[in-house]
Amino acid sequence: MTADVDVLLVGGGIMSATLAALVSELEPSWSIEIHERRDGLAQESSNAWNNAGTGHAALCELNYTPERADGSIDITKAVTINEQFEISRELWNHLSTHDRLPGGTGFLSTTPHMTFVRGEENVDYLRRRFETLRKHPLFSDLEFSTDPEQIALWAPLLVTDRDPAQPIAATRAAAGTDVDFGALASSMVTDSVERGARLHLESEVTKLKQRRDGTWRVTVRDRRWNGHRRARTLTARFVFIGAGGGALRLLQRSGIPEAKGFGGFPISGQFLRTTNPEIVAQHQAKVYGKADIGAPPMSVPHLDTRVVDGETALLFGPYAGWSMKFLKHGSWTDLLRSIRPGNIVPMLAVGAKNTGLVKYLVGEVTAGDTARLRTLRAFMPTAHPRDWELITAGQRVQVIKKAKGGGVLEFGTELVTSADGTMSGLLGASPGASTAVATMLDLLERCFPERSDAWQPRLRQMMPSLGGGTWDESFELDQLVDETVGTER
Fold it and tell me: Its family (predicted)?
């Protein structure tokens, strides 16, 4: 097969950046092009203020440790996500120690991960979760307490002025992280460009059609003010669609059978943010709570330390909303234009089954400043509205797919790959960015099975745990984590 480019990446976020880093390492002779419709990299879901930057490792997120009917705690998903995040950190460590992160290592900061709950029933659940998790080596350092004085030492804002009669509990993982995925993605793309990849900003992929020889004919529109909206075509041997909320419609346009039946349910969100130094200095943690009944997993409330461009702030939310846009800077017609004969039934079925979610979103959309402050004060009793500003988070498109009974709404990610392995796209949201490396490794295995064996030795050198080995985490933290922000700030 002849083509203008070997690998064409749609979208300039963390997924495309990760795939570019891997491919440029494994196949340095392959040509790579990255096309991003915005005028800068990582401006949608990967942008630091459009996500929580948790570095999802299942240390604090309760939706990864559901309670079984018999009262036991299922930690299967938590273990998987933790392992996947460790793989991400191994790759970042490899890139850092081989001078392949031009933007430096300030994207990663040590920030303890905590879970905080109120009420006897929730305290009992958190204790059982802790006792189950700590038996696994990955969670052996997890701490638990119901003592307000101890919790105040970890995160004083959670306890100050709280009713002492209210039962509370918290767990803490001191080695948690805060990740600026926007800065990381930009750094990885810069490195790939220095190694020969070509980056095209304000370049929108509008059409994809597979040719008889298996390559893809791709139409790209120039969105620059002086580009006169000109379109050009090129051929690609492999196409990855990592365009966040824009991925669904591009997969549909490609015509691959594997994309049929998928739909999308857009959910927007907002955060409260403070940069007041007196408040910020009192909270050095990411603290997750328990979601309200009917709330989607992405709406689990959390009070987070965020480090962006070297500056520390606190973020609380998210407050869920709803919009027909599939991208924060998308179109109000995105949802309507995604409807196809093959996904109408799954989408209708999901709407009928999730009336509680719809009711919850309506309540969130109509909530005013008083309601938002009330939610914040459940975490931080001393919160005052003068210290907090409301910011708009990124847009998330949850996956709808065919299932028994018509359709099901998924809150994870879905890798959609053509049968011949020449195209793949990623749908969904959390824990996406944190597990980007594991997802892209899965893509490589699915789409390039004939090269998988040859790549394994190099991949295991970069990420030792892939081969069952271990890595020196203390060394990684010393070398990779931003030393200006640590657990003893």
Answer: Belongs to the MQO family.
